[in-house]
Amino acid sequence: MNTPEDLLQFNQQWAENVKASDPDYFNRLSQQQTPEYLWIGCSDSRIAANQIVGMEPGSIFVHRNIANVVVHTDLNCLSVIQYAVEVLKVKHIVVVGHYGCGGVLAALGDASNGLIDNWLEHIRDVYRTHQTAVDSATTDKERANRLCELNVIAQVGNVAETTVVRNAWRRGQDLTLHGWIYSLEDGLVRDLKVTKDASSLK
To answer: 61, exposed or middle or buried, with CB in 10 Å at 0-12, 13-18, 19+?
Structure first.
């Protein structure tokens, strides 16, 4: 197991390697960030937003939590969305879930998980809404994967209902929402085709 000291040494070696191959890299990176994307993803340690879509650091603004949930009382997430939309002027907000999500699996189970059960209740709400579609899956894996997809779709809807996003659309700001899902088994991201833009305003 690597110690914290190991990580600091790895960082020093990494920084030296980067500077050797691109002497101006950190100077460029230290300038004001201008990402066009806000990525709302899961906290799962196996998913690195920039890496899996082949983007450089500075190109994606990232918010992560258990099971990529967007809750209208979560000031952390809402503050990230507001900063991304109003200050960074991102053009895209992408909610990205992943198959095999531990939060979704826990939400489908009956076990008591402590404090996190309060958070998982948001996913259970999605399950209750779509129980027939989820339970019609033929295997437990397919059942969980279906709920992973439905959870992403629900969270895109929640982003679309935030005052920050709705106000941006009313101002005519160029902003589009997307729902994607990532597979750890093959490294591919799939578009769930739930794109929303200003035309979603009622």
So the answer is: buried
Tens digit of pLDDT for each residue in 142-170? Answer: 999 999 999 999 999 999 999 999 999 99
Could you tell me if 58 and 37 are in contact, meaning their C-beta atoms sit under 8 angstroms apart? no
Instruction: Give the DSSP letter string of 101-129.
Output: -HHHHHHHS----TTHHHHHHHHHHHHHH
Is-above-0.90 flag for pTM? Answer: yes
Give the three-class secondary structure for 24: coil
Sheet holding 37-42, edge to edge: 60-65, 37-42, 92-98, 176-182, 189-191
Q: Do 13 and 34 touch, CB atoms closer than 8 A?
A: no
Q: What proportions of the chain, in percent to the nearest 5, are helix, strand and coil?
A: 50, 15, 35
CA distance 42 to 33: 22
What secondary structure does DSSP assign to 52-112, as a single string? HTT--TTSEEEEEEGGG---TT-HHHHHHHHIIIIIS--SEEEEEEETT-HHHHHHHS---
Radius of gyration of the CA atoms of the chain, in A: 19
Question: Cα angle vertex 184, ends 135, 56, to 5°?
Answer: 135
The residues annotated as belonging to the active site are 42, 44, 46, 98, 101
